[in-house]
Amino acid sequence: MRVEIIKCLQDNYSYILIDEASLNACIIDPGDSKPIINFIENNNIKLKYILNTHHHYDHVGGNSELKKRYRSEVIGFKDDRHRIPEIDIFVSDNEIWKKDNFEAKIYHTPGHTTGHIAFHFYKDNKIFTGDTLFSLGCGKVLEGTHEQMFASLNKFKELPLDTEIYCGHEYTLQNSNFCLAYDSTNSKLKEKIKIIKKKLSNNLTTVPTQLNDELECNIFLKAKSLESFSILRDLKDNF
Ligand code: ZN
Ligand code: FE
Questions:
Q1: How far, in Å, is the centroid of ligand 2 from the Cα of 90?
Q2: Which of 33, 97, 153, 203 is most solvent-facing, going by the fewest CB within 10 Å?
Q3: What is the dihedral of CA 173, 160, 187, 112, to 10 degrees?
Q4: Does 55 qualify as catalytic in the annotation?
Q5: 82 assigned to active site
Q6: Beta bridge partners of 28
Q7: What's the rounded Cα separation, in Å, for the pair 69 and 170?
């Protein structure tokens, strides 16, 4: 399985997963249809599935147009079936979603929204975390509670250390400033920031990031208690 990173809207990432033998493809979080259509037409792939991590417009904005054009099926969390446009297939926590050569475990990760999910393509060692886990950050707690968000982030800590993390936005540099402000002696973090800046100056993406890097550098994953997580989340909201 190959992953193509597509920049969408302001700072969103959509991901096209391509099975190279069949050229069947999935899209994760199409915020906008245009750049996706562009890629599909130029690469002759078949867009069979549209996977949404949550219902926010910048993650589902392309659903209708893409579904109409390619007759793709839309997959989303069962409790969000009323607010994910054009949803066809409802998935639940811990379910394995399997179609063609694609195989992902669903993790319900509430906090940013109550119905947020992540897709873990475990055979390929990749997880798509939407707006729950970012590189060096985490999503704002908009609908859920801090407790839910903390529990959701803790689920990711159990994955293999070399898991590649694909998140919903390019927020890494802003996030790194916050991590550095409250974890100023972390040399691994400083190393990572150098790499991040180099990538961005070469117009490269900072995703994917690796779980073991995040465990050492992401201050929200380093938080050991709900209390310290909550303090950090509140500080970040006003940073
Ligand atoms: Zn969102
Ligand atoms: Fe978003």
A1: 21
A2: 203
A3: 40
A4: no
A5: no
A6: 15, 51
A7: 28
| E strand spans, the chain | 2-8, 12-18, 24-28, 46-51, 73-77, 89-91, 96-99, 102-108, 117-121, 126-130, 133-134, 137-138, 164-167, 209-210
Looking at residues 7-30, what average pLDDT do you find? 98
> Which among 126, 169, 156, 93 has a CA at the least distance from the CA of 18?
126
Alpha helices in 90-167 (DSSP H): 146-156
Helix boundaries (H) for 9-145:
34-43, 57-60, 63-70
Taking the centre of ligand 1 as the mean of its atom positions, its distance from the CA of residue 95, in whole angstroms, is 22
CATH hierarchy code of domain 2-234: 3.60.15.10
**Which residue in the list 58, 80, 108, 120 is annotated as catalytic?**
58
The pLDDT of residue 145 is 98
Residue 5: burial class (beta carbons within 10 Å; 0-12, 13-18, 19+): middle
* 76 vs 65: CA distance, rounded Å: 17
Residue 122 has a pLDDT of: 98
Based on the residue annotation, tell me whether 56 is a catalytic residue of this protein.
Answer: yes
Please give the pLDDT value at position 109.
98
pLDDT of res. 233: 98
The residue from 29, 80, 169, 213 that is catalytic is 169
d(CA 126, CA 151): 20
User: What would the DSSP string read from start to end of 25-61?
Assistant: EEEE--S-SHHHHHHHHHHT-EEEEEE-S---HHHHT
- CA dihedral of residues 165, 166, 168, 169 (deg, nearest 10): 90
Query: Residue 108 catalytic?
Result: no
